[in-house]
Specification:
By secondary structure, the protein is an alpha/beta fold. The chain has twelve helices and eight strands. Strand 1 and strand 2 form a beta hairpin.
Length: about 350
């Protein structure tokens, strides 16, 4: 019954505010010219927009109604069940996706070959979509090509001799113990990051020699407003809709160099991490966990907002020299970047 009348209620509320706004608006400048070139319509829109009563509050109300009644968000996010939010990028299957996928695989295979010529082992950390790990919270089905993307990509990497541990299976198993992705953020939880680090550790240790010990102590948790909340700006109504910050556990993780003397040179860094905000953002502590689980110092060259391919291209161009000590590169690649039109 509620769903039957919810649309009418929303339209009625919008009409009331629209009428009130029209009565308040000053349309004199709009009618100063003839209705010939569209300028009058633009002036009317500006006058109407400027007259919205308590404009920011009104927008919060409409966004709250859209989300509360219809589970609608701004473009860029997809509302799931139980207050879960997902990035729309995990649904994207735009024209040319097959070609972008093939090019991405070719780039990965070529990168592995380039690194091999420098005696560097590549470990690909292919991060499964959040909507793959928590598919039961989806309201809308994802396109079939997207559903098979992870398995196809990993199979092609393995066929080409690339070290690509099965992170989807690891995260599916770990989620039974604790959340591995945040409900209202694109990214993983620190527990999810540690799970991936544990899964990669065997490959890293097998291709590095220097070992480091780490000390781990709990740190104060952080209240984090997920990046997907930016697509549901509901202001003071967020709490009633369950769109609240989430608690992110934190740990102090630092190496103990007990075997290094005061005047000894530290062991050279052998492990490099290259990736996206999953690795670059210190909140998730992926680099720390990778070092902890691999017993190795990690040089983190990941970048925020540039995808996984540009940072790697810069590394290949500038950071590989005959004098470097690198023996392992961990390349963190969220699976959606294999087909995204923007990267």
């Amino acid at each position: 019954m509620f769903e039957k009348y919810s649309g009418a209620v929303l339209v009625g509320l919008l009409a009331c505010v629209g009428i009130a706004t029209a009565l308040r608006a000053d349309f004199s400048s709009a009618f100063a010219t003839d209705f010939e070139d569209g300028s009058t319509q633009q002036e009317l829109e500006i006058a109407f927009d400027d007259s919205l009563p308590h404009r920011s509050a009104s927008l919060s109300i409409w966004n709250a109604l859209r989300f509360g009644l219809f589970q609608e968000t701004a473009e860029g996010a997809v509302a799931g069940k139980g207050g879960w939010l997902f990035t729309a990028e995990e649904y994207e299957n735009a024209l040319g996706a097959d070609l972008r996928f093939a090019n991405a695989i070719d780039t990965i295979v070529g990168t592995a070959a380039t690194l091999r010529t420098h005696d560097i082992h590549l470990v690909v950390a292919l991060i499964p979509d959040k909507s793959r790990i928590y598919s039961e919270f989806l309201r809308a089905n994802r396109p079939a090509p997207v559903l098979g993307r992870f398995a196809t990509a990993r199979a092609l990497m393995l066929e080409n001799g690339i070290d690509a541990p099965d992170l989807a299976s690891a995260l599916m198993k770990a989620r039974e113990e604790a959340p591995v992705f945040l409900e209202r953020d694109t990214h993983w939880t620190p527990f999810g990051a540690q799970t991936v680090a544990q899964t990669l550790a065997g490959s890293v240790r097998a291709h590095s020699q220097n070992r480091s010990e780490f000390e781990v102590t709990p740190a104060p948790a952080i209240a984090h407003s997920g990046d997907l909340l930016n697509f549901v700006e509901t202001g003071p109504f967020a709490e009633g809709l369950g769109l609240l910050p989430e608690t992110v556990a934190q740990f102090d993780i630092y190496p103990i160099n007990g075997s290094v003397g005061l005047f000894d040179d530290p062991a050279p860094v052998e492990v490099v991490l290259i990736g996206t905000s999953y690795s670059a953002d210190a909140l998730w502590q992926f680099a720390d966990f990778l070092g902890l689980e691999s017993e190795a110092e990690v040089l983190n060259l990941s970048q925020v907002g540039r995808g996984p391919f540009l940072p790697m291209a810069e590394f290949l161009k500038a950071d590989i020299t005959a004098e470097n000590s690198f023996s392992v590169v961990v390349w963190e690649i969220p699976e959606r970047f294999l087909t995204l039109s923007e990267f």
